[in-house]
Amino acid sequence: MRKSRPLFSPFLLFPLMGALFLFLATGCTDTPPPPPQEELERKVRTLLELPTYEQNYREVIYLGEQASFLSIPTRDLRLLFSLDITVEAGIDLRDSFRIAPRGWQQLTITLPEPRILSLDADEGSIRQYFIKEWGLGAGFGRLDLYDEINAVKERVRREAVERGILEKARENAETLLRQMFLMAGFESVQFRTER
Amino acid sequence: MAKNNGRKKGKASLKQILRLMILVLILLILFTALVLYREFGLTFGLYRKNRESSSQTLEIRSRDLERLYTAEVVWDLVFPHDFFPDPRDWEIYQAKLRTRHPLDPEEWALDRFRRLCEETGFKPEPGDTKFFVLRVVVKGGYDFSENGGFTLPGNPKALVRWDHDTLVITPPVVKILSVRVEDPRREEYKFPDVPLSPDKLRLITAHVSRAAEEKALQWGLLEEARANGEKLLTRMFNDAGIDKLRFE
Fold first, then answer.
1. How many domains does chain A have?
2. Which of A22, A37, A48 is opposite residue B232, by nearest beta carbon?
3. Angle subtended by helix axes A142-162 and A165-183, to nearest 10
4. Which helix (H) or strand (E) covers residue A89, if one does?
5. Is B61 exposed, middle or buried (0-12, 13-18, 19+ CB in 10 A)?
6. Which chain A residue has the Cα nearest residue B184?
7. Based on the number of CB atoms within 10 Å of its own CB, is B174 exposed (0-12), middle (13-18) or buried (19 or more)?
8. Is residue A145 part of a domain?
9. Is the residue at A114 inside a domain?
10. Cβ distance of B37 and A25 shorter than 8 Å
11. What is the chain A residue with the closest CA to B61?
12. CA A15 – CA B30 distance, rounded (Å)
C-alpha cells in the first residue's frame, strides 16, 4: 500500500520560510527612476580662496558585516581598502580681507583667520585590497563606503588641526602676500588677523 | 476492514489538517515577527546582525601651496544616465561593433563608457533603474608656484614689475587646479543607494572627473577665473595705493 506523504514537510518548510523571512526583512525594494534633469543645478561661482598648505592622509579602512538567522550564517561582508584624504587650509579672501597703506612704502594687511578650505576623499587614490560579499541581501553600497569615509574625515580634520595646519597656512599666506608687495616696491608689510 | 480503512483515512486527513494548522501558525508567527522587525526593530534573537568598521592612518604627507582659486564650477549629475548618448548614435555604434567597422573618436568615447558600465554593474542603456546622483566641483585659478615661483624676487617671470610709473602684473596662466567629487552624507542624500565596491567607485570617479573638466571648460570656468583673478589683484594693488596697473 502506498504510504500517504505529507503535503508539506516541516523540515523543508522551516528553512524555506526562514529564507523568505530574511529576504523580506533584509529589504528588496524597487528602485525609483532617476530625478529629472531640471532638479539638478549647474553653476559657475566666484571663489577667492588662497590655499597655502596641504596635508594628505593615507587611510586604510575595514568594513565588515555578519548576519545570522537561528544561528545559521546568512550574510558575510568584508572589505579592506585604502584611500587618500586631502586637507587644504588657507585664507578665504571674501572674509574680512583688507589692505591699507601705512606711511611711506608700508602696508598693513588684515587677514581673516585661516581655515580648512577643503577636506576631501580622493577616490582616484583608492586601492582595494579585498572584498567578500556572501549571502542574502545586497553587498556594500556607495553610502556604506561614504559613511566610513566621512567618519574618517572627521578624525583627519581634528588631527590636521592638532598638527598645526592652520598656523602653517597662515604663515605661508603671509609669506606669499609679503613677497608680492615687496616685489611691487613696498618696504614693510605688517599683518593683522581679524578674529 | 472497510471501517478500519475509513478510520485510517480519517486519521491521515486529521494529521494533514494538523500539519496545515501548524504551518499556518508558523506563518502567522513569522509574519508577526516580520511586522515587529520592520516596524519596531524587534528580532527576539532570531536574526542577528553584527557590523564592524575600523580605520588607521598609514602615512601623512604635507606640502606648501601657492594657489589662488578664483572660480569654481559645480556640476550635479546622474550617473550613468547623463552619459547616455543619443539613441541614434547608440544604434550606429552598435551596428559598427557588430560589423567590426572602425569607430570614430566619439564612438570610441561611447565604447569606453559601455565598458565602464559593464565593469561597474550598470547598463549603458536608457531604462536601467540603477543610478546615483553626485556633485563634482572643479576649481580654477592661479598656481604661483609655477615657473620657479611667481613671487620669488629676482625671477624674470615675476608676478609684478615696474614699467616707468605703471605696475605690470604678469599672472600665471589660469588653469583647472582641482577636480573633486563631493562625498555624500547618508542623511542628506535623497535617493536609493546602489551597490558599489571601492574599485568600481574609483573607475566611475575617474570617468566623471574627466567629463567634469570638459564641462567646466565649456561653461567658461577659465574665463571666469581669469576675470576674477585680475579683479582681485587690481583691487589689492589699488587698495595699497597703486592706481596705474597693466596686465600682461
1. 1
2. A48
3. 70
4. strand A72-92
5. exposed
6. A146
7. buried
8. yes
9. yes
10. yes
11. A56
12. 12
Query: Which chain A residue has the Cα nearest residue B177?
Result: A51
| Residue of B44, B180, B200, B228 to mutate when probing chain A, most A C-beta within 10 A | B180
Any A CB within 8 A of B247 CB: no
Chain A residue closest in CA terms to B74 = A43
CA proximity to B200, closest of A121, A126, A59: A126
Q: In what order do the strands lie in the sheet with A106-112?
A: A98-101, A106-112, A188-194
Determine, yes or no, domain membership for A93: yes
Residue A179 belongs to what domain range? Answer: 33-194
ipTM given for this complex: 0.78
Among A49, A82, A176, select the one facing B66 at the smallest CB separation: A176
Q: Is residue A2 part of a domain?
A: no
Cis peptide before B80 (omega within 30 of 0): yes
Q: Which of A71, A88, A121 sits opposite B183 (nearest CB)?
A: A121
**Global pTM?**
0.80
Dihedral in degrees, nearest 10, Cα atoms A136, A140, A142, A143: 80
If you ran DSSP here, which 8-state letter would residue B164 be given? T
> Is A146 within 8 Å of B161 when comparing Cβ atoms?
no
Let me know: does A194 contact A96? Beta carbons within 8 Å: yes
Chains A, B: CB pairs < 8 Å: 280
Asked if B160's CB is within 8 angstroms of A146's CB, the reply is no
The answer to whether the CB of B153 falls within 8 A of the CB of A183 is yes
> Which chain A residues are within 8 Å of B162, Cβ to Cβ?
184-185
Is B46 at the interface with chain A, CB within 8 A?
A: yes
Per-residue pLDDT of chain B (248 residues; tens, 9 = 90+): 556 666 676 777 888 899 999 999 999 988 887 777 666 666 666 778 888 999 999 999 999 999 999 999 999 999 999 998 888 888 898 899 889 888 888 889 889 999 999 999 998 877 788 999 999 999 999 999 886 666 666 666 678 888 889 999 999 999 999 999 999 999 999 999 999 999 999 999 999 999 999 999 999 999 999 999 999 999 999 999 999 999 98
Query: Cα distance from A194 to chain B (closest Cα, Å)?
Result: 17
Q: What CA–CA distance (Å, rounded) separates A131 from B120? A: 14
